[in-house]
Structures are given as structure tokens and as C-alpha cells.
Amino acid sequence: MTEPGASSGAVRIDPLIEDYGLLGDTRTAALVDPAGSLDWMCVPRFDGDAIFGRLVGGEHAGHFKLGPAGPVHGVERRYRTDCNTLETTWRTSSGTLTLSEGMVAEVNGQLLPATMLVRRMTAQGGPVEAVLEFDPRLGEAHRRPHVAHRAAGLVCSWGSIAVSLRLTPFVAVQPGLTHVVTVEPGRPLTCVLTVADREPLVQVDPDHAWAVLEQDERRWQRWCRDVDDQMPRRPAVIRSLLTLRLLTYSPSGAPVAAPTTSLPEVVGGVRNWDYRYSWPRDASIGVGAFLGVGKQAEARAFMAWLLSATRLDRPRLPVLLTLHGKHPTAEHELTGWPGYAASTPVRVGNGASGQHQLDGYGWVLDAAWSLTSAGHRLYSETWRTMAGFADRVADHWREPDAGIWEMRSDMAHHVHSKIMAWLALDRALRVAQTHRTSATRLNRWRTERAALREEIGVRGFDAAKVTFTRTYGSSDVDAALLVLPQLGFESADSPRVLGTIDAISRELSAGGPLLYRYPPGNDGLPGREGAFLPCSFWLVSALARSGRVQEGVALFDELLELTGPLGLYAEEMDPETHHQLGNYPQALTHSAVVQAALALRDAGVTD
Amino acid sequence: MDWAGWALFGLLATTGLTALMIAAQLGGLSRLDLPLILGTVVTPDPDRARVAGFFFHLVFGQCFALGYAACFVLLDSATWWIGGLLGLLHGVIALTVLIPMLAGVHPRMASNRSGPESTAVLEPPGLVGLNYGAQTPLVALAAHLAYGVALGALLQVR
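Predict the joint structure of the above. Result:
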């Protein structure tokens, strides 16, 4: 049944970013390409070291492949309905081979490992030869493991981290070699990979692991049932919600921006960043998205994380934090990592963490207001924290900031940041109506809110073009301003808001439904970045909320058609090839998908 | 056994330990909040939890002080430095055994294994409390050292 050979070593062409499928357990995640190669997985959590890092680390960074050995006549991929189990089906000359795989999310209260990946290959129509390549390497230096063949299976270890691989039927796997196995119809090949970090390995029988994964599928399907049947484009919204949940680190409630580092915003370029961190802004947007679909517990968990994680910095709101609320390590480049499609450097850490970004306060206070509006009274401590943020905005809004797009050039007076500062004070005043606050404080917030509105109207608006601008005095526009209609800063159908939407659609168009986030070539970095996907979905929301519902529906449908069969989105898209760019999948984009659907639903659109 | 000293100075040392931990939080050194962690066993409201947790902590502190007093009797000596050594040992045990074990029994504390169905909102402390900030182990050790020094200096062997 098995025939080991030397690893092929052939030059590998990187699969497209959108071709990767996401597996996850809400503690870490893996990416699998259409050939069945698992090319990215960090342990023991999202921001740990990669044990399979070929996605950006090159041939020697580790991978785990299960797929057909011979030529393939066609491949189809899908997620099973309303869950996170991925299915890849290959048509070969001898039969059809299907790889079904997933990670078990719910292990609490059971003797199961915290990280358990289950992969099963089944054949139909005849026996199919398949390859198995298991080559785990740890960290920056692609360290080979200490290998032990035990009765229960293969154990690879690196100090405190150990990985176990078991298969049914048994295959004597040698790390780094290619094994050819024959999968017979009715006799699936099931693998279970378990990980232990500073604890004993828990060995799980592959068939039992498969049963546990099926239980997990049913849990996810129950989770999805809460989502309104009439939600516009419900399957896409469900996929986005499932992705958002997979990207929420359950032990702390932190939302991970993306499970990857350094997938490029320009192929072959240097715009490669580490997104395995949590942005309070994303958590706040997630609160709105989850509340909008009735997922109260998830919304509250995000707020709890915000409260806990920001504790050491209050009243300052950090731009980004680790999954446990610490400051990221200094950004550095991984030596010898060739990057995705030769896009170097590959970075870990994130240099944006030291920036001053005013808009974050607006998002966070808006999330607190959303929770309050949904009937949740804030605990006294939560309100004290929010009031502290509002005070800080009142103290600092006159200063320039780095803006939502985290440019590493000079600070500026970003109009979007000022509007979000206005939002922070406005939402603080609204929440204060039901929470105890001193009259002095309220008066101060009112005064500063009024001053912000006046200054934005005078310095942040271009009367000739009838649009709010990117920075004070500039004539550029900024796609972040598409959030205007949902803020209440001005009436959603006011000439100034409608003018801004039109100016952004016109001046930042990247062709079709796509938008750049700011005028290209304006950020001081080499290369031209792609269209920024969240902005396109924000345009859907803006159109829906400003009364142009049919335009919004048409745009939403166009955008949904741009993704692959798996329904996952990165941060950006190449406007010409429509290939996805940047870290993948991206929580902010998926939040924007949900926001767009909610805006359409609120405008009366049903599925 | 110095029963009167135990009753009074146990209370005093525990209050001092709690105050040091709170000062470290306010100073941005650590997010370890023992009154909050202990009190959220009985209520999810952070403010109420801190009040309840403070009293729980006093009770626990008093119990530990009994252990210190017993050690001093066994050693037939109570000095600030013996108390300090016991305090360091106490701190190490708290960081490596007691606090990490909380994730297994606390109804509102998540663990590193928590999944989507978990409704626990307190993050787990992690190895030696590092999830609550890089300086947490030092803060906890310093607070327990002060607790032990206070008991060693104030309790008498009778």
C-alpha cells in the first residue's frame, strides 16, 4: 500500500492566495492549497512558530500533503454546509479522490489535545493512488524534529513542542519523504495530527478523531442556525461569520486580523506585514457585525477582550496587541525566507504598534454604544474605561495622527480620524445618558464634539468638489470616509455625504466594483498596492444607507462573484487579474461583508 | 504560637500584599488582579467582584499566615529574612501552581483549550502569569516577598 521515495524537490509554483482553504479551531489555523498541501500552520496558537511554513518560507519550511499521485483531470473545492470542514475532490483517470479535513474546535471537558487536525481521503469509482508528504519544520531556522516511531504512530518533537501523526490504515511515515498509498473505495485513509506544547501528547485514534470532527461540524451547524434566514446573500454571510469566529482566539476572545504573515500586497514587493495580532478597531467592528446577526456572546467576548487587553495602556488605546494583550515584539525580518512568490522580506512583529491613531477610539466607543443599544448595560469598570477613552480624545484630537491606514510616513490631520474622534465623543455622550457621569465631563465632551464638527466642516471639506477630504487642505479623498452614512455625523442622504460617496467612487475606482483605499502611489512605499476589499464592501453599506439600495445590491453581488468557491477574502485584490493580495483570510474584509449585508437587510433587502 | 499576632499581622500583611498588587496594576506593570479573579467566581460584575474578591483574599491570606506562623514555631525563630524566604517560596508556588490551576476550576476563566462554546471571559493566566503582562512574575514575587518579610518581622515565636 505504501511506497516511500525521496521528496520530489521539483520547483514549485506558488498557488494563488485565494486558492488556499482555511482550517481552524479558534486557537490556531492552517491553510491548504488545491493540491492538498497544508502549507501554513503555527503552533500552539496563531502567533506561534510555524511548523508548516512553506507558504512564505520556501521548500524547507515544512508542509503536509495528501493528494492524488497521478495526473488530475479536475478539482473541486467547497466547505461542507454551514461548517468549517473543507472538501477537495480530484478527478483522476482511475477514480475520484476526496480529501475532507478540519480542526476540532471544541475540546474542553474531553481528553483531547488542544490542537487536533483530522484529514480523511476517500476514493470513489476505483482505487486511487495518493501521495503523503509529512515534513514538519519549526520556526525561523526550519528546524528538523527529533523523530520517534512509536506503537501509536510517529512523534516529532522540538523541546517542549511535540507533534504526533497517526494513520488508519497504518502507514510507516518518514518525515521529509514522499509516500505513495492506494486508497480503495470503502476504505478511507484517515490521519490525525495532534500537537502538545509543554504538556503530554494526547494520542487519538484516527477513526475516533473523525467522529469528534463530525460532532464539531454539527456544533458549527447549530451555531449558524441563529442567523436570520432572510439575511441577504446568506451563504456568503455565513462563511464570513464562520471565518470571523475561526479568527477569534477563544482563550482570550482576541480577534486575529489574519492567520498569516507577509502575504504580499504587491506580488514580488516589500509590502509584507505580520497580521497575527489583534487590532482594537477590528474587535469593535466585529462587535457590530456579531450583534447585527444576533450573536450576543461573541460581541460581548470582543468587548471583554478590549477591556482586559487595554488595561496596561489606559487611557491610551494601543493600535494593536498580541492575543493576550501584550505589545508585539519588535518587527524583524526572517533570514532566508523567500516569501510568497519571491515577495520579501517576511516579517514577524508589527511596527505599526507604536503609532498614534485617533480613529480607534471612535470604533471602540461605537461598539460600546452598540452593546448599550442592544440592551446590555455596561459594567461600571467598562464605562470608566470608555469615559477615559473619551477624555483622551477630548485632550488629543487637535494633534495629527497616523490615520487608519497606518502609513509609516509623517503624521497628518486625517479627516476620517477627526470624524471618528467626533464619533467617540458622540457615542460617549449617548452612553452617558444611562450611565453615571459628572456634569463637568459631559459639558467638556459636548464642547469638544461641537468644536470637532465645526473644524471638520471648515478644514476637512472641499466645497468645490462637494466632498470630505483625506486630510485637512488636501484635494484627495479617502475610502475610509465611506463609513460616514452609518455614523450620524450628517444625515446619510445629505449632499455632503452623497458627494463624498460619489467622489470616492469616481476618484478611487480600481475598475469594476473595486476601490483603492487612497490615491495609489501616495504612501511612500515602492510598488502599487491593490484594491482594498473592505472599502468596496463599505461602499455597499454606504449606498444602502443613503437610499441607493439597488446600486448597493448590484455592487454586493459583483463583489461576491469575485471570490473563489470557498468564499474567503484577503485584504486586497489585484484590479487587473482579480487575484487576491495580502494576508489571508482577513477578518476586516469579512466583517465588512457582514456589515454590507446588514445594511442591505436594514434597507429592506432579503435573500 | 502568637495567635494575637497572627490575627492582626496576617490581616495587615495580606492588605499590604493586595495594595502592592493594585499599585502595580495602576502603574501599568501587570494585569493580574487577584480580587477580580477571586470575586468573579461569585459574580460577573467587575466592581462587585473586586469587593467580594478582596474579602476572599483576606481570608486566604489569613490562612497562609497561619502556615507562616507554624513554620516560625517549627524553626523556633521569626525573622524578616526567614519570612522573606517563605514569601518567595509562597510567590513561586502561587505563580506556578495556584494561579495556573485556577483555569481548571474558575467558572468564568477560559483555558488555553477554550473553544467556541466557551462563555468564560477571563483570560487564562498562562505560564507564571505571563498572559497578564511580562512583569507579572516579578510583581507577584515582590508582593509575596513583602508579605513574608512583614510576617517574619512582626510575628513572634512563643
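Chain A is about 30% helix and 20% strand.
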